[in-house]
Amino acid sequence: MDAFSGLLGSAKARGAFLLKSVFNPPWGLRIEDRAPLSLVTVLHGSAWVLREGGEPVGLAAGDVAVLRGPDPYTLVDDPATLPTVTVGPDQRCSTGKGEDVTETMSLGIRTWGEPHRAGSTVLLSGTYQAPGEVGRRLLAGLPALLVQPASVARAPLVGMLAAETEHEEIGQEVVLDRLLDLLLIDVLRSWLTQPGTGAPRWFRAQSDPVVGRALSLLHDRPSTPWTVASLASVVGVSRAKLARDFTALVGEPPMSYLTGRRLTLASDLLRDPDLSVANIAERVGYSGPFALSAAFKRERGVSPQEYRRGKRSEEATVTGADGAYVFPSGR
Fold it and tell me: N or C: fewer beta carbons within 10 Å in the chain?
């Protein structure tokens, strides 16, 4: 497994918020839900994304915008339009006068906004509502805004996701979650393979014959009791060279990277109530539940039990690169 596959494996939506929105110009929507990651695509019409301190970025039909939270952003029909509705925590919507319009603007199954007419803009939004659904390392590597034009997309995922939101069927929540994951993966894969994107260091490091091999081993076999010396032996270099090159290319030492990988896996496994902390510790490479608990508390600020119960303190903000990246459209 390459590092990219391992990290994208952490993108697992769970009951993601999916909504189709219909607006008639002039319209403006301020998003202050503090979600760690959101995807917005234009099904019909066009839109602009405004971020504090950033230049307006236009979206045409079929374009997909990936927005890293928790900072707010605004969607408008024109950069000069002021927002009239604000989306807050729990996806509650209110006007500037404080009127709650969450229910009154509902248009049916997963559809919200204004009655559709000629010239309406239709948006499809998908929101990952907890950092653990995406993965800290993946979030930290993303720019604040990433836009994939329709011409770059390699699969009809937007159409599939839009069609699935229009009705309700048994097991649909799982289908929507997985389609959202696939759309995110498609955008990120395109971004990472474009030249000059400012891709994170761990991705660029995969092309190195030594560090790339070490990364693959850490992702394939996180439960192995690795040391820098044993890892260096497998990849065929000295301990000093591996430590030096890995830190230089990835941005952190091998064992620090391994700790992050193990705790990300542990966070995911803690969602399974049938697995004990001892079972999870064994799976991710810790000697026992106490060792896992100590590492988890040190890095995440809460114990595995607190994390599992959902009675943890608010997770620390995961910040990534500043700015935006818009793919060359080829139009």
Answer: C
Residues making up the chain, counted from first to last: 331
DSSP β-bridge partners for residue 145: 67, 324
Cα 295 to Cα 133, 259, 290, distances in angstroms: 20, 8, 9
- Using CB atoms within 10 Å of the CB of residue 288, give its burial: 0 to 12 exposed, 13 to 18 middle, 19+ buried: exposed
Q: Are 43 and 61 in contact (CB under 8 A)?
A: yes
Torsion angle, alpha carbons of 288, 293, 294, 298, to 10: 150
Backbone dihedral region for residue 6 (phi beyond 0: left; psi -120 to 50: alpha; all else: beta): alpha
**pTM score of the predicted model:** 0.72
Distance CA 58, CA 147 (A): 9
| Rounded Cα–Cα distance for residues 78 and 149 (Å) | 19
Q: What is the DSSP letter of 100?
A: B
Asked if residues 152 and 146 have their Cβ atoms less than 8 Å apart, the reply is no
Q: For residues 235-249, b (16+ Cβ closer than 10 Å) or e, as one string?
A: bebeeeebbebbeeb
User: Cα–Cα–Cα angle for 308, 6, 127, nearest 5°?
Assistant: 60
In tens, the pLDDT along 75-114 reads 999 999 999 999 998 889 999 888 999 998 988 888 888 8
Nearest to 250, CA basis, from 187, 185, 199: 199
Q: Which residues of 19-45 are buried (b: 16+ CB within 10 A; e: fewer)?
A: bbbbbbeebbbbbebebbbbbbbbbeb
Which residues, other chains included, contact 37 with Cβ-Cβ below 8 Å and sequence gap of 6+?
66, 67, 68, 69, 127, 128, 133, 134, 139, 142, 184
Residue type at 237?
Answer: V
